[in-house]
Design goal:
about 325 residues, DNA polymerase, domain 1
């Protein structure tokens, strides 16, 4: 096979142009951002023709990116999986040697990984939510993922919400501990709180309640906010929604793991949790909390909203790199 010379910047622009009509703007933005690190590395290493790219160099980039970005395994995995898709595309235009994408390695996340390493990053969250807003607006999965990301609630708190707990005029949700009627909160009465919600989320909730919500009551005569035709949506159902819609193939119709989507067992309705890239509600909650911290939310504000102590926030939920924290602190230098 005769390769055709191509420089990294031109390759990225061709790749994004090719994907433009098949993916959302959020996906394009995410891929440009992630692959931008690879282009920067190529420039630093003097790689001006991707024909010369080797498996060893791809491994060197992975190590460089991990150290340079202080990446958690989950974030490293996302970035390397995107690079694999890019390299595979390059093969199709004779830009790199065939099967080079198989040499793009990324972490294998298991149940034994430290919980700090598993989260949904803000890029992927926005990509997923944009897909739901466009193609499955005000559906149950849309409500579930929108609430979990926006409010940082535990899955048990979403399960416990009733329609009367939503106040559209005040744009708020009240989380209530009701153990006698089947919806206890993890932290009992100390988990009770009011949560402000944005106008956009209120609009989705209004449309869900008015047009899409199955109008049923639970066995205690309560009107759950999140329902199925059989009654209050069980926590297992809510977890399933998270696993199903955090699979990369849902918003992109592509598999970063090189699988045939039509034959992948994780593409089945009940097999979503087997996808290496799908995440649990807890990872969604951690991602929402980390995103808020990255947006300079005060610890105290997140503590009250997410019902988690500042100590636990710092120890188990704050996934910002030390460099990110330093840059955020830099803004206060003028006050010294």
């Amino acid at each position: 096979m005769s390769l055709e010379p191509i420089d990294p910047e031109h390759a990225l622009e061709l790749y994004l142009a090719d994907r433009e009509n098949s993916v959302t703007q959020a996906t394009l933005y995410s891929h440009r951002s992630r692959l931008g690190h690879f282009i920067r590395w190529c420039n630093e290493e003097g790689i001006h023709n991707l024909n010369e790219l080797s498996g060893r160099q791809l491994h060197e980039f992975r190590i460089w990116r991990r150290v340079e970005g202080d990446l958690a395994p989950a974030t490293e995995k996302t970035q390397m999986d995107t690079l694999r898709v890019f390299i595979k595309w390059l093969e199709s235009i004779d830009g790199v040697e065939q099967d080079l994408h198989t040499k793009v390695l990324s972490p294998t996340l298991t149940g034994n990984d430290n919980i700090r390493d598993v989260m949904l990053d803000s890029e992927r969250a926005e990509q997923i939510l944009e897909y739901l807003r466009t193609y499955e607006y005000a559906s149950r999965p849309h409500i579930v993922l929108e609430l979990m990301w926006h409010t940082m609630m535990r899955v048990g708190a979403v399960h416990a919400l009733d329609c009367e707990d939503y106040n559209p005029l005040n744009q708020s949700l009240e989380v209530v501990h009701r153990p006698k009627t089947g919806t206890p909160l993890k932290n009992g009465e100390t988990g009770q709180r009011f949560i402000a919600v944005s106008e956009d989320v209120c609009e989705v909730l209004d449309d869900w309640i008015e047009d899409r919500r199955p109008a049923v009551t639970d066995e205690h005569g309560r009107e759950p906010l999140v329902t199925t035709p059989a009654g209050r949506a069980h926590t297992t159902t809510l977890r399933g929604d998270c696993y199903r819609y955090t699979r990369p193939c849902i918003p992109t119709r592509e598999c970063p793991h090189g699988r045939d989507i039509d034959e992948c067992p994780a593409a089945d309705y009940d097999g979503a949790s087997e996808c290496p890239s799908s995440v649990s509600p807890h990872a969604l909650r951690r991602g929402g909390i980390t995103h808020a911290l990255s947006e300079d939310w005060p610890m105290k504000a997140i503590e009250g909203r997410a019902n988690v102590s500042e100590k636990v926030l710092s120890m188990h939920y704050d996934s910002r790199s030390e460099e990110q924290k330093m840059e955020q602190r830099r803004e206060y230098l003028g006050d010294l």
